[in-house]
Amino acid sequence: MAIEDYRGDVEMCCRCSACKHIPLQKIKGVEHSEACPSIAKYNFHAYSGSGRLLIAKEMLTNGFKYTDKLLDIVYNCQMCGACDISCKYAMDMEVLEPIYEFRIKAVEEGHTNPALDKAITSLRKQGTMVPGAKAKRGEWAKGLGIKDFLRQKTKVAYHVGCLTSFDKDMWPVARATAKLLNKAGVDFGIGGEVESCCGGRAYQMGYQNDFIRQAQNNMALFKQCSIETLVTSCANGYHAFKVLYDKFGLKGNLEVLHITEYLARLIKEGKLKLNKKVNMTVTYHDPCYLGRLGEPWIHWEGKRIPGYKFVFDPPKEYRRGTHGVYEPPREVLTSIPGLKLSEMDRIKEYAWCCGAGGGVNESNPEFAMWTAKERIEEAESTGAEAIATACPWCEKNFNEAIKESGSGLKVYDIVELVEKAI
Amino acid sequence: MAISKDVYKEFEDVVGAENISDDPVIKAAYRSPDLTVVLPGNTEEVAAVIKLCNKHKIPYKAQSTGWSFMPPTYDFIFLDLRRMNRIIEINEKNMYAVVEPYVISAELQGELFKRGMICNVKGAGSTCTALAMSGHGHMGLTTSTGDRNDLATEWVTDEGEIIRLGTLGASDEWFCGDGPGPSLRGILRGGGVITKQATKVYHWPGPSEYPLEGVSPRYTLGKKPSDLNMMVRYFSFPSIEKLVEAELKIGESEIAFELMGFCPSMVSSNITTSNEEDFATLDKFTKEVQGPGFMVIIAGNFDEDFAYKKKALAQIIKETDGKSLKTVEDPAVESTLLFQCTRVCASIRETFRAGGMFSSMMVQGQRYDNHVKWLEEGAVLKRELIKKGLVIADDGQQFGWGEEQGHLGHTEIFCRFNPYDEKSSKAVQEWLGKLGKRALDGCFAVPAMGVLPVDEIGKRVSNYHVWFGKLKKAFDPNEVGENTGYSYVGADISGVHTSIYKKEPEKASPKQ
Ligand SMILES: Cc1cc2nc3c(=O)[nH]c(=O)nc-3n(C[C@H](O)[C@H](O)[C@H](O)COP(=O)(O)OP(=O)(O)OC[C@H]3O[C@@H](n4cnc5c(N)ncnc54)[C@H](O)[C@@H]3O)c2cc1C
Ligand code: SF4
Ligand code: SF4
Q1: What is the set of domains in chain B, with CATH numbers?
Q2: Is A43 an interface residue toward B (CB < 8 Å)?
Q3: Residue B482 has pLDDT above 80, yes or no
Q4: In angstroms, what separates the C-alpha of A289 from chain B's closest C-alpha?
Q5: Is the Cβ atom of B67 under 6 angstroms away from ligand 1?
Q6: How far apart, in whole angstroms, are the C-alpha atoms of residue A162 and residue A84?
Q7: pTM as predicted
C-alpha cells in the first residue's frame, strides 16, 4: 500500500478532533483527556492525526512539497496509534496507516531525518540501531547456561531485543526472563550473537526496505533453526514479529508471544508459582506496541463500492485496538501476592505513549522526554509507588524522565516484579 | 495578501515564535492557503492580536475547536484558541461553570458528573467547545440550549477591547449574563472573541462516572441501566400528530431526562460500530417501527422517583399508541445509547461515518406545529434523492427534540452523502435551497444561514440583516472581524460544509 491508496480515508476526515482525545466517554475532566502527544505538545492542528490527514489530502491533490516544517511534523509523531483508535470509535477509516505511508514516502524520496539516518546506518552496519553497541549481543547471558538455538535444537526462541541486549541497565530484565522460563521448565534458546534487530523501529521511522530486509533475514534464521514459538519482552519486537511480519506476508506459522502472555499462560498452568509477597502499589503502563497496536494484522483486499457510502467489497474489517494485549500483563501483576494494581486514567487502547516510539527518541529526545514526564505525572496521581511496564524502551524513557523531573517513582519491567515473587 | 515580515514579527512578539506560523503546511491543515495562524494563550494575547489586526487592517477569525467546519475564506489572522483550555470555576452552589474556549464538552461533563451535575452539549457532540454561546443539543429537554445557558462572559471586541459582560461587569461574579453590569447577550453573535464564559449547569441524577467495561469501539456499561435507576426506550408512533402529542405530554409531566427525536437511522448509527453493521441494523429497525419516533431517557433520583417516572411514561405511551422498539429494550443496547447520548452526545457516528458528509436544514428554538410539517415536506423531497441513489438510503425522516420540557425545541433533517461526488453534492445543495425557499414562502421558519443569501432571508424577517450590519459597523469600524459566518456560533453550516469539498479551486494552492 502507498499513501495514494488511502486517498479515500484521508478524504473521510471530518475534522471532529476525536483523534486528539481519549474516547469521549472515558474523559474524566481536563486532566489526562488528551491522547496525542504531538498535538498536545505542538498545538497547531497539523500535528494531530487529523492534521496529518489533511496535509496528505492537500499533497495528494497538489503534489508533495517537502519543507522543513513538513518534515518537522512528519517526524514529530510517535506512531503511537492513539489517534487511530479514537477515530475508529466512531468512523470507518484508516488514520495511522496513511500516517505511516506518508513517512515511508518521505524516506523513499530522500527526505529523511539526520538522527534517524544515523540510527539506520548503524542498523545496516551492525544489525542494531542502539548507539554505543560495544558489548556483544549475547553477553548478558554469560554464565547462565542458556541454549543457543543456532547450535542446540529448541522450538522456543527468546528474542531479547536490541535495547535489552546492549544496554547493561536492562540486562537484569533479560536475566530475570531467562530465570523465569527455566523455572517454568520451558525448553528455550537464544540467538546470542546471531540475534538481529526485529526491524520494527526501522519501520516506525519510515525505512520500510530496511525493515523488510531484517524481517526476511530473521525469518530465514528461525526457519533454519526450526523455531516454532518466539517469545520477546520487547513490545516493539512483539509488534514487529507478530503484526508487521504478518502484514508483509513473512510471518508464516511462527507463534509470537510477548513475555507477559507467556508468563500469564505459565502461571495459569501452574508451571510458575508466585508465592513471595511483593507489598507494593503499582500502576501499569500499556506500551503502545503491545497494547492497541499489538492486535493481529487483518489481511484484507478489496475495493470501494462506487457510490455515496464509504463501504467496500468485501466488507473491510478495521483494526480498532479491540484485540490488543491488555489483560495478560494485568493478570500477571494481579497474581503477584501483596501487589496492588492502581490504574491510570489513560489505559489499554487509549493509553498515553511513553514518548520513545516512531524514532522520536532519536530525532527529538526533548519531545520524547516531555511525553514521558506527562506519563510519570499521571502515574504519580494514582498514588502508586512504582510504574510497571512491558517494554525496555518505555522503561528507559521513564527512568530518564524520572531522573530529570526528580520524581520518586520507581520503574519496573513486569518480569522483574514476577522475579521478586518467586 | 501575505503579511509582511515586519507585521508578522509584531504578532510573533505577542504570542511567541512557537505559537505563530504561516508555513504552507500548517495552513493546509487549517484548510486555507492564505492565513497566519496564531495560538494565543490568554485573553490579553487575544486582545493584543486583535488590536494589531485593527492597526494593520487585517481581517481575523477565531476558532474554538474547529468542529464546525467554518473554513477560513480569505487572507487573515486565524486565532486557534487551543491553548485556552482551562476550567476557571465550577460553582456548585450557584450551578454554573466558567470555561475557556478550548475546554471541550466531554471534559466539562466529566468534571460535572463527579459533582452530580451536567451541562448542555451541542448537537455536534462532546468534542466541541463547552462555551455556552449558541448551540442546541440532544439533552435540551432538561439542560436547555446554548443561547439560554450563557451567563457572564468575557469578550474581546473586534477592536480588541476586553469587555466583561453581565455580573462580571460589576463584580467578579459570573452568575448572570444580564447584569448588574452591561448585557450584550442579544447581539453577542459573530463578532469579537469570547475568551471566558459561564454556562449554566443542571442537576444530574445519574452516576458520578459510568462503570464502563470493554474495549473500544464496543464499550458496555458494567451494569444494567435499571440498576442505576435509568432507562432508555425508543417509541414509534402511528402518525406525526401522535408523536407530537406524546412529546408534549412528556414535557408537561417533567418525567424525562432526555427526549431525542432520533429517527431509526440515528439510533442504528449510534449503537453500531461499522457502516455494514449500521445498515443491517437499520433494515431491521425499519421493519420494527410503525412510524415516526423518539428516544427517551428516564433517570430517577431514587427508586420511587424512577418507578413513578416509568409508570407515567407507560401511561403516556399507551394514550398516544406508541410502540417500543424491542432492540432498544436490550440492556446492552440501552446502555450504549445511554453513554452515547449523555457523554459522547452522538453526532460523529450518525453524521459522517456513512458517506463522509452531512448537510442539514434545521430550526433552532422550535419543534412542534409548523416546523415538523415543513421538514416532513423536506423528507418527501429527500426520499426522491434517495430513490435516485444520490444520498444515503436511510429512512429519510426529520428529527428533533424538545427543549426546556418542550417549551422550546429543535427540528432538523439531514442528508448524508459523499462530498466528492459532484452529483450528490449538487443535489443536496438544491434540496437545501428548495427547503429554504419553502420555509420562507410557506411562512414555516427562518431557514438557517448558508442556504439562501442573507439578504433574501433578511428582507422577509424585518430586515434583521440590516440591523446586524449596523451593529457590526458600530463594533467593528475597521471591518477586521471576518464576517462570512456573520450570524452566530452554532449556526447552520451546511452551505459552508459542502463548499470546501468542491473540486480544488485554483486559489487553493498554497502561496510559496
Ligand atoms: C456533526 C455536527 C452536528 C451538529 N449538530 C448541531 C446541533 O444539533 N445543534 C447545534 O446547535 N449545532 C450543531 N452543530 C454546529 C455546532 O454547534 C458547532 O459546530 C459548534 O458549536 C462548534 O463549536 P466549535 O468549538 O467547534 O466551534 P468552531 O468550529 O471553533 O467555531 C464555530 C464558529 O464560531 C466562531 N467562534 C469559535 N469560537 C469562538 C469564540 N471563542 N468567540 C467567538 N467566535 C468563536 C468561529 O469563528 C466559527 O465561525 C453541529 C456541527 C456538526 C459538525
Ligand atoms: S482523523 Fe478521525 S477523529 Fe480525527 S478529525 Fe479526522 S475523522 Fe475526526
Ligand atoms: S500516532 Fe500518536 S503521536 Fe502520531 S498523530 Fe497519532 S496520536 Fe499523535
Answers
A1: 5-83 (3.30.43.10), 87-203 (3.30.465.10), 213-354 (3.30.70.3450), 454-491 (no CATH)
A2: yes
A3: no
A4: 16
A5: yes
A6: 27
A7: 0.95
